[in-house]
Write the structure tokens for this entry.
Amino acid sequence: MERYFWHLSGPQADGLACVLCGADYLKMRIPSVEVGKVPETEAPVYACADPCAEKIAAAADQMAREMREAAAEVGANWDADSDADDGHLGADGHFGHLLRDLRALSGTEALLAVTDDMPSIRYLLGLTSRHAEAAMIRAKALLERTADSADGDG
């Protein structure tokens, strides 16, 4: 499982208690399932099979739906930006998004240089990965779009 749980008690982080309701598995015989890991140690954590694991799964499903909706919205905006640019490089459209990605990368670089908190570092690395990939895709799209005008000028 790649889902991480933060701010756990000792027993929860050791897999001895439910990460959601805190039920003590040493005192009560409750069926449990692995639902993720502790970020610092990568140790597995558990939740009561019913109802806690179901609640965690429902929350994950909701998050996945929201991500799909956001991705569809970004895709629609990407296409709209392509039509709106009309071949000009300005602060709007792909070029503006590229500049925002580059600013985010600069900010994460500055934060990574001064933090030693592992959960923060992992978050910043994820942020860096997303913005670096988006910047690469946008830069390639802009290179392709500007290649025709550059060939005609030379």
The mean pLDDT is 82. Strands lie at 32-37, 44-48. The radius of gyration is 22 Å. The longest helix spans residues 118-153.
